[in-house]
Amino acid sequence: METIALPDGRTLAYDEYGDADAPPVVFCHGTPGSRRSAALFEDCSARIVAPDRPGIGASDPDAGRDFDSWREDVAALTEELGIDEFGVVGFSGGGPFALAAGDAPGATAVGLLAPSGPPEAGPTDPLTVAGRHAPILLRGLFALQRPIVRWNPDAALSLYTDAEPASLSVPDGVDPIEVFAEDALTASEQGSRWLAREFALLSESWSVPNPEEPVKIWFGEDDENVPPSVATAVAEATGAETVALSTDHLETLCEAREDCVSFVSPSA
Fold first, then answer.
1. What is the tally of structural domains in the chain?
2. Are 243 and 135 within 8 A, CB to CB?
3. CATH number of the structural domain spanning residue 39
4. How far is 122 from 132, CA to CA, in rounded Å?
5. What is the pLDDT of residues 20-34, one digit of tens each?
6. Global pTM value
7. Over pLDDT 90: what percentage of the chain?
8. Can you list the alpha helix ranges (DSSP code H) found in the chain?
9. Is the confidence at residue 138, as pLDDT, over 80?
């Protein structure tokens, strides 16, 4: 793990994966999630820079955070690392944050993998209702998740897919059970308050950020976490090209990760 100091004094934590000499790509993790899920990009031809959002992992909280403030954080991170041009990838709840980061100086394109959208774009579910009206319940759920994952690491992966771990397309030597157990535990290192606040942000009505750079979306027709209608709504709001796959939530990430990175790569 590495850290930088942001202009307002907060610390932003990040990991790097992939090829350090390849074009840079900023990865925006899911909700709940953390920088650790970017391990699935280890074999991609890109320098994957994966920061934790505020209050998650080792990044300091930002009580007023929103999509715009995340764009500023990404701009500060890439400037600190001396990155002039970079692609942006967002998975699941990281989708709207990736779209916002697509307007940061130097961003060349945005690729979205099973992205979240405004709550009105999909069917109402209990978690969204809790995020909007009773975020304290979400804090309890996320707090309970931590000991469950410690006791049973498989539980974290089961939140994203019904597929057998061995069937997932992941880099050689990467265990998806281990990755998503670490992802869940890292996400809640500072407790469940900030995870719940981010989920509450996504549960309210919001306008889809629409960067000037090209956007492409990969989504799963069998995705029960983020239904296809949500990806379609995000595509309509951004003018994005879409690719439909016969996959569930995590399978979409695993199957499309290389194509997504290739699309957003500054050298593409």
1. 1
2. no
3. 3.40.50.1820
4. 15
5. 999 999 999 999 999
6. 0.95
7. 82
8. 67-80, 95-101, 126-133, 135-151, 154-158, 176-187, 193-203, 228-238, 249-264
9. no
